[in-house]
Specification:
mainly alpha; Rossmann fold; 3 strands
Length: 168
């Protein structure tokens, strides 16, 4: 994780983008969800998570690494927040199903699973956040149960690239 907040204090959007991009040099290397979760849990969680905090996790869930501690990092994040909301741009597709192993691992540890692919989805999110406090998303139960039945516990999860290779 790279904190780029201070770069966006300038009024020049292009200068802000350039300076933030120079500091966050890993921005185009694919999604490394597990290491980002570990970094957040170790370096930021206690600093920024107040009582009753709602955590928004914005990702497609397709992790490019195979970290054996992936589930542990998700579980720790879930325990440190009152509600873990996963915002996934792939939910824009009607046929979305949690097929990737990293997605099935993550889904076990979230309270709400919402789309984030359009301005309307962002508007809907603001409405949902008002209702979310201490409520679990009942729609997740079926997927979470299926992931547990399939044996997805806090163990090694292959990277999405490895998984795609085994599917081909």
């Amino acid at each position: 994780l790279t904190n780029i907040t201070r770069h966006w204090r300038t009024k020049d959007v292009e200068a802000a983008r350039a300076s933030a991009g120079a500091e966050a040099q890993d921005g185009e290397g694919g999604t490394r969800i597990s290491s980002c979760l570990q970094s957040f849990n170790n370096d930021w969680s206690r600093r920024v998570m107040g009582q009753g905090a709602i955590t928004l996790l914005i990702t497609d869930g397709l992790d490019r690494t195979a970290d054996p501690a992936f589930g542990t990092h998700m579980a720790r994040l879930h325990k440190s927040t009152s509600a873990l909301v996963w915002l996934n741009p792939l939910l824009r597709f009607d046929g979305f199903a949690p097929k990737a192993q990293s997605v099935r691992m993550m889904i076990q540890h979230v309270d709400h699973f919402l789309p984030i692919h359009s301005l309307q989805a962002m508007r809907d999110l603001t409405t949902s956040l008002a209702k979310i406090q201490n409520q679990r998303d009942a729609r997740l139960t079926e997927w979470q149960d299926a992931a547990r039945r399939a044996g997805f516990t806090d163990r090694a999860v292959p990277s999405y690239a490895q998984e795609k290779g085994s599917l081909a």
